[in-house]
Amino acid sequence: MSIDEQPAAERLRSPLWFRSATRWTQLTFTDDDPARLDVDFWLDVMRRTRSNALCLSAGGYLAFYPTRIPYHRRSRHLGDTDPFGAVVAGARALGMHVMARVDPHAVHQDAADAHPEWLARDENGEPVPHPSQPGIWWTDPISSYHREFITEVALEIVRGYDVDALFANRWEGHGRVSYAETAAREFRADTGFALPRADSPDEAWRAYTGWRARKLSELVVRWDDAVRAERGHVRFLPNRGAMLTRDLVRELVDDRYPMFVVDKQGRWGTEPSWTPGRIGKRSRGLFPERPIVLITSVGPESHQLRWKDAVSSPQELTSWIVDGFAHGALPWFTKFKAECFDTRWVEPIAAAMRLHELCEPVLSRLTPTAEVVILDSPRSNGLNPWAAHSGRTTAHEDGFYQALVEARIPFEYLADEALSAERLAGVRVLVVPAGADLDAQQRQVVTDFVAAGGGVVAAFDATVTVNGDGRREIGLGPLFGVRMTDDVRGSLKNTYLSLAQEHPIRVGYEGAQRIVGGTHVLGIEVAAEAADEVTVPMRFVPDYPDLPMEELYPRGGPESPAVVARTHPGGGRTVYAAFNLGEIYWEALQADHAQLIAQSVRWALGSDPGQVRVEGSGLVDVAVRRGERELAVALVNLTEPMAMRGQARAVLPLTDQQVLMRVPEGVDTVRVRHLVAGSEQRVATGDDGCVRLPVDRLELLEVVHLTW
Question: Quick one: signal sequence residues (predicted)?
């Protein structure tokens, strides 16, 4: 029996409870909250936001229930109350799932004095003080504090309260090596090295990165085993970032994460408005079947600035949540402090959650799909275990992502670890922005994909490898029909691309002899054996000085190929750009580069324009889902003044949008529903096998649902 077939009461305590936990409220208590907590207010918020799951502060740094564990400090205002238990009982009465939050990252002075072995240590062996709060000390995740004390806390919560899971925040340490005695002893025993310091050899750092990942993974297993032994359906799910399990030991922890909670609470600085959608896609690219939940703070987020009691603009809150769930990242909002100094967040959060509730019956049963995928290849040099945890993307990827959103080309992600013929089934174009370090087996998968008619669009050092004699080469060069003649040069100025041979990629540049080039380039040549199949739509103009102004002129004509397009005998098409196309588009936002990316992908798709097209003006993020005899297209309107920086302040409604969908042969009419607008009609199929569906007005979201 599936989770959907079980009675509601059984679903709440089922091992598959996470499948029906789709809209989350998180309340993070502060020390003074027990004296001010308005339980009825928060239960009303849960009703208004249609929440079916709750994450609530329980213990760790501070206990918000009457704990009996020594050095598990109770809130000073707890008295004889139990705020955790009161809110848990209220949420359960509403039929909600419950997750208990524990924070193991710091302890108070009394615990530090009694258990100095719990503390993180600096290079001099001194305890690491908390930077924000005097008298507080960072804990060491390798110590008995995490292994034993937090396990004891988790068991006390599971034994005393009706919860489905535990959630650990800031559980991985203070972001640097801890030189505590226990960690030093265990690291030497396991690796033979002393803990690495700033001047340590690379071998010690590589050993530490792998060792740390294993220790944290063993901690995940320990916590999860403990709570599951107590109550079979309960899980312990420590916080994750965009890297999911990549910075842990996946063979240890993959089965410990039936769902992922990604802590990316809002936009930082110049992050674009489509960031939450990418989080959903990236997770699905590695774990397509596992639910992912995206945490959204009700207040502004920044790497440097902290206003945890503030409130974001209404448009930012709704847009962030909606773009996330349109691409599969389920909504979870978090409020720090139960007392509200500003309630302007409630209705925007409720509006976004109501939209999810409205669309969920359709979106949840259909499978996200796209004929274009971006290969997800996060880099790590192995020497900084915290770099991978950030999950930050490169400008190469950002530029391709932005260009495809602008072009309204639906696309998904595919993790390079999951690259296989099976995962490429139904895909027509694979996009490799840069830096994919593919091994021989992965390169063969891509080669076979093209031989079967697939397309590849790649740029810059995508698939560059080191051969047996130490020379760098383009790993997929034989597929693209090129050889590397010169390694990367740059940073360059005054680089241009001459429009060379006629080709569909060049359409749209009428009136130009050349367009802007990149700042980093590779030298390539067309391989003789591929010459008959290759076209060179663009060549590099030799770069020249930018000062003095009198020296600003080209010294020669077009030279080596810059963009190479190849049509393969089996019908597959490949495009390779020998410069930092995605990166320079992201940094300079030159329209010609966006057009080059979009035109390359469209040409690689072949003569068939694809199953779904969305026409009209404005910045619209498109998501497609498919089922048996049905299709849904979500349109998220990101057209707003701050789409590329800061908080959204006004989403600008769009008119005259049109969705074109190709339906199976023999289908002459389809039933169409606009889920948000609430309209329904039957539409005839055109002679070209497509239905044309106008969207007269697009506010923030519309989901066009077809069945036949």
Answer: none
Residues of the chain with CATH 3.40.50.880: 372-605
What are 266's strand-pairing partners? none
Q: What dihedral do alpha carbons 243, 247, 253, 257 form, nearest 10°? A: -20
Beta pairing class for 620-627 and 367-368: antiparallel
Q: How far apart are the C-alpha atoms of 449 and 454, rounded to whole Å?
A: 5
Contact 238, 223 (CB under 8 A): yes
Q: Nearest-CA neighbor of 259 among 276, 283, 282, 243?
A: 283
pLDDT of residue 174 exceeding 70: yes
CA distance 415 to 14: 30
Q: Collapsing DSSP states into helix, strand and coil, what is residue 412?
A: strand
For helices 39-48 and 346-363, give the axis angle rounded to 10 degrees: 40
| C-alpha angle 16-19-24 in degrees, rounded to nearest 5 | 120
20-52, pLDDT tens digit by residue? 999 999 999 999 999 999 999 999 999 999 999
Identify the pLDDT of residue 5.
Answer: 47
Confidence of residue 380 (pLDDT cuts 50, 70, 90): low
* Burial per residue of 441-456, b for 16 or more beta-carbon CB atoms within 10 angstroms, e otherwise: ebbebbbebbeeebbb
More confident residue, 592 or 201: 592
- The Cα–Cα gap between 371 and 374 comes to 10
Report phi then psi at 493, rounded to 5.
Answer: -125, 160
Q: Return the DSSP state at 129.
A: B
Judge contact between 119 and 138, C-beta under 8 A: yes
- Residues 567-589: b if buried by 16+ CB within 10 A, e if exposed: bbeeebbbbbbbbbbbbbbbeee
Q: How confident is the model at residue 387 (pLDDT cuts 50, 70, 90)?
A: low
- How many helices and strands, by DSSP H and E, does the chain display? 18, 32
Q: Where are the beta strands (DSSP E) in 195-339?
A: 235-236, 260-262, 292-297, 329-336
Tokens of 316: 């930012």
Higher pLDDT, 303 or 499: 499
Overall CATH class of domain 372-605: alpha beta
Q: Is 212 helix (H, G, I), strand (E, B) or coil?
A: helix
Superfamily of chain region 612-707: Golgi alpha-mannosidase II (2.60.40.1180)
Integer-rounded Cα Rg, in Å, for the chain is 27
What are the distances in angstroms from CA 103 to CA 30, 122, 304? Answer: 12, 21, 21
Integer Cα distance of 69 and 99 in angstroms: 20
The CA-CA-CA angle for residues 29, 30, 36, to 5°, reads: 85
What is the rounded distance in angstroms from the CA atom of residue 338 to the CA atom of residue 38? 8
Classify residue 272 by burial, with Cβ atoms within 10 Å: 0-12, 13-18, 19+: buried
- Residue 3's pLDDT is what? 39
Q: How many CB atoms lie within 10 A of CB 367?
A: 12
CB 605 within 8 A of CB 456: no
Q: Reading across the β-sheet that carries 235-236, which strands appear in turn?
A: 235-236, 165-168, 97-103, 53-60, 24-28, 329-336, 292-297, 260-262
- Please give the single-letter amino acid code of residue 428: R
Q: What is the dihedral of CA 556, 559, 563, 566, to 10 degrees?
A: 150
In angstroms, the Cα distances linking 183 to 143, 211, 323 are 7, 10, 42
Number of residues that make up the chain = 708
Sequence-ordered list of residues with C-beta below 8 angstroms from that of 550, at least 6 positions apart, any chain: none
- Per-residue confidence (pLDDT) for residue 1, from 0 to 100: 34
pLDDT tens for 421-458 read 999 999 999 999 998 889 999 999 999 999 999 999 99
Task: Say how far apart CA 506 and CA 526 lie, in whole Å.
Answer: 19
| Distance from C-alpha of 650 to C-alpha of 315, rounded to nearest angstrom | 6
Q: For the segment 361-375, what is each residue's pLDDT rounded down to a tens digit?
A: 999 999 999 999 999
Residue that has been written with the tokens 């002393």 in this structure: 194
